Records
---
Amino acid sequence: MRHIFMDTNVVIDFLAGREPFATDAARLFNFAVEGKVKIYISAVSYNNIYYVLRQSAPGTVVIKLLEGLADITQITDVTGAVIRQSLGSDFKDYEDAVQYYCALAIPGVDFIVTRNTKDFKKSALPVMSPVEALSSLV
């Protein structure tokens, strides 16, 4: 079984149905439902996902979506060490730094999935777009 860390943008694509990205994101989550992959999402992503989805849906609906998401994924902690590493990193985007150091803290994670692969140029982990991730899983 592959272990993948999912960046917030891909999760929002899936839950919000943002085309043309939603289909590939949904296929990745379907692999998790089928037990073919284990998807990890940082705890801080839940705040960001709620904020974005709440702009177009009632809070109760968004909470139900997040509950379903939590059922099919692993939620990773955002620790003090992750915050300190992120603050001291040379990432241009602080949120990407937090995502990266959360992923790096997961033993056995195979790769990060994001639509912003260019933002993870210095990653010690492989970084793939959803399309690339799907190709590697088939």
Note: DSSP finds seven helices and five strands in the chain.
---
Amino acid sequence: MKGILYTFFISMVPVIELRGGIPAGVAAGLPVFWAALVSIIGNMIPVPFVLFFIRKLLVWMEQKSSLLGRFAKMLRDKADANKEKVLKYEFWGLVLLVAIPLPGTGAYTGALVAAMVDMQIKRAVPAIFIGVVIAAIIVSLVTTGVVAMW
């Protein structure tokens, strides 16, 4: 149970997400399938909250202090840098953005970009979910050594 909770909470952390959750779960003794499943669930839980509240949070941060305002600007810039893919390819662009297991991609970035381009939640959540599952498969294959990443 300890390994499951460990994996679950690591997968909820921005930037780390399931890219760190799956290897951490396997290192904690979970079979790769269970590490991936728990990581997918943990990675998806914050998504609706980001989609619903990120715009209000960014406005609040900008009004609260200059330090928080700079952080909010950094998040907006990150969304702007990735929104071309999403605007051009919509659903599949968002899937691709979330699925590529590289820094600056993932469920949080996908949800941030989807919110910033006003993508409907009923389209954003399935796209993010499909991307998270693809990322979990890739990370699982790399974690088990089936596929080597350079």
Note: The mean pLDDT is 89.
---
Amino acid sequence: MMTQQNQTTYTKDPSNKKLFVSREFEADVEKVWRAWTEPALMDQWWAPKPWRAETKSMDFREGGKWLYAMIGPDGTKAYCIVNYESIKPQKSFIGFDAFCDENGIINNDFPTMHWKVTFNPIEDGTRVDVEITFKSEADLEKILEMGFKEGFAMAHNNLDELLAK
């Protein structure tokens, strides 16, 4: 049972076009890793409520892709794709993330992001550190204006609930 709500922290490094995100979870690395890499689990937490995530396809391997939709309460679908570049099981993965259409064709009207996600064992669980690199400082600001910080923190709260089950 969770004793307190963990907080998602953000550190902006505009000069290097980076956003750092850190969050602790009260579960071991294996369980947290599975929640970040298995589509049936991702779909249960990735979208901030009342939105939900729905995986169209996932091939979690180097050179593989995850194509998913964020589905709004009115049925609106926003598709995203992650192209996995590097995977070190239960340690880290690196991927290129972009908004796209239902076929995975990238929508260049939105910023693209390069994610490095690292899983670190800590005394009472796992700390996940995410380093997101943008093409420009303007792209970083646009993602923040779109509500990324609030949405990602809400998704992390969903993950807390999933891990507590």
Note: The helical segments are 29-37, 39-45, 137-145, 148-164.
---
Amino acid sequence: MRSSSISLKLGTLGGMLAATLPSLHRDKVFEAVVLAGLGACVSFVVSLVLKWLLKRLKAWILKRRDLN
């Protein structure tokens, strides 16, 4: 019973890919890959900046607390 379930899933996946591949255009796929890479880079840089800002904010709050 288990092997038929796997073959059913693989057959469904293969049929889905066979139906969608002809409709994909190379330039659109390339554009999606570039935009995904750009989005990942921007997300990484923003997370680094936020981490740096949080570190500075904590240090500033602790410094003010020690002065009072």
Note: Residues 25-68 form one domain.
